[in-house]
């Protein structure tokens, strides 16, 4: 709806066809989002032929179908939302968009596993697939491009959900670090990449002695199996006693970190919690950890370092490189380490 409002104001006639909600519900949402005096038209129909008739009659700049799982065509006996109906409806909308030169935006349901409901053929038919991700307990949302025939898929947008719709977060790193508690053991700053955008995110860890023969390992926002690997490396290569400790790891802000470049920050946070020694507040941490305890290089290092320097960090622990880093940011001291042991010495003293 917000995209429809903006398009109607700045581009021209836009039609929003909904099979999910009534026209009254759509009108209430549009007014809340500030539709104002714009060329936005609403229609409620689940018959695809009727929806296409509305679109072709108005010749809008943009047509939005919400959602493809509610649409059906009379020539098929199956019910709406089935594989056959979704495929046929998507192909007819594609043909209409190409023949009339009307941009068509199709909304698709997402399952609990995070994939588009229905057949994969829906993704193959369209030119671009955009996916909105977020935790229902937090206000931040990430807009990712899963597929794009006209550009890169590495871009990501960060937004905050509010009563007036989605608002852009111009400096997401600053927002994620706003409530950080300085000089608290178990807190470390990871410099991660979301597409081509570097983000500084706080990683928290907590260790507590347990009498349970099988200590708990809990990871929120971090890969569970990767956590086991890091705990094994810390125990075997560094000698930190964790076999009788419950270990909890949390990525702040409802974010999820998938890339190995966050390994070192997670390991430092765990070691900091286990030793009760805080990580210096002006220290950022970058690096992938191997099974031998060695630190491995990560990609897009310059973008990560520039983001850390921009947010006021004075030092950064990172893997030792064979080649010198080109144009390192001024005011950011680089602390290179070959192993996790060296990195812990630099981070915790």
Summarize this structure as a short list of keywords or feature phrases.
single chain; 349 residues; alpha/beta; Rossmann fold; Ribosomal Protein S5, domain 2; 2 domains; four-stranded parallel β-sheet; four-stranded antiparallel β-sheet; 17 strands; 28% strand
- Largest sheet, described in full? 4 strands, parallel
End-to-end C-alpha gap: 53 Å
Order of helices and strands: HEHEHEHEHEEEEHEEEHEHEEEHEEH
- Estimated share of beta-strand residues: 25-35%
Folded structure, characterized:
It is a single chain. This protein is an alpha/beta fold and 349 residues long. The chain folds into two domains: 2-126, P-loop containing nucleotide triphosphate hydrolases (Rossmann fold), CATH 3.40.50; 175-348, Ribosomal Protein S5, domain 2 (2-Layer Sandwich). The chain is 30% helix and 28% strand. It has ten helices and 17 strands. It has helices at 2-10, 23-32, 48-58, 83-100, 121-125, 172-176, 224-238, 263-275, 301-310, 340-348; strands spanning 14-18, 40-44, 62-66, 103-107, 128-134, 140-148, 156-162, 165-168, 187-194, 197-209, 217-220, 245-251, 283-285, 288-289, 295-296, 315-319, 333-337. The strands form five sheets. Strands 2-1-3-4 form a four-stranded parallel β-sheet, sandwiched between helices. Helix 7 crosses helix 8 and helix 8 (263-275) packs across helix 10 (340-348).
């Amino acid at each position: 709806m917000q995209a429809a409002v903006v398009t109607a104001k700045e581009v021209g006639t836009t039609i929003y066809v909904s099979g999910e909600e009534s026209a009254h519900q759509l009108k209430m949402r549009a007014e809340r989002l500030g539709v104002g005096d714009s060329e936005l038209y609403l229609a409620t129909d689940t018959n695809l032929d009727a929806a296409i008739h509305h679109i072709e009659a108005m010749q809008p700049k943009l047509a939005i179908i919400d959602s493809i799982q509610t649409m059906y065509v009379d020539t098929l006996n199956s019910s709406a939302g089935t594989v056959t109906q979704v495929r046929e409806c998507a192909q007819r909308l594609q043909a209409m968009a190409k023949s009339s030169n009307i941009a068509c935006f199709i909304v698709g349901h997402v399952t609990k596993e995070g994939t588009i409901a229905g057949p994969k053929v829906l993704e193959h038919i369209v030119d671009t697939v955009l996916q909105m991700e977020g935790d229902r307990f937090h206000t931040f949302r990430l807009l990712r491009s899963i597929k794009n025939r006209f550009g890169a898929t590495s871009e990501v947008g960060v937004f905050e959900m509010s009563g007036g719709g989605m608002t852009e977060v111009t400096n997401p790193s600053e927002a994620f670090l706003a409530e950080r508690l300085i000089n608290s053991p178990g807190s470390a700053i990871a410099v991660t990449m979301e597409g081509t955008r570097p983000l500084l995110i706080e990683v928290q860890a907590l260790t507590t002695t347990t009498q349970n023969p099988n200590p708990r390992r809990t990871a929120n926002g971090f890969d569970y199996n990767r956590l086991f690997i890091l705990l094994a490396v810390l125990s075997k290569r560094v000698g930190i006693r964790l076999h009788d400790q419950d270990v909890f790891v949390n990525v702040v802000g409802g974010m999820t970190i998938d890339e190995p470049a966050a390994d070192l920050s997670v390991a430092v946070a765990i070691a900091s919690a286990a030793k009760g020694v805080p990580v210096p507040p002006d220290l950022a941490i970058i690096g992938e950890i191997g099974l031998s305890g060695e630190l491995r290089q990560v990609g897009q290092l310059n973008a990560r370092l520039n983001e850390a320097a921009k947010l006021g960090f004075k030092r950064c622990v990172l893997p030792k490189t064979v080649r010198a880093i080109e144009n390192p940011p001024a005011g950011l001291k680089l602390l290179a380490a070959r192993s996790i042991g060296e990195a812990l010495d630099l981070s915790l003293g």
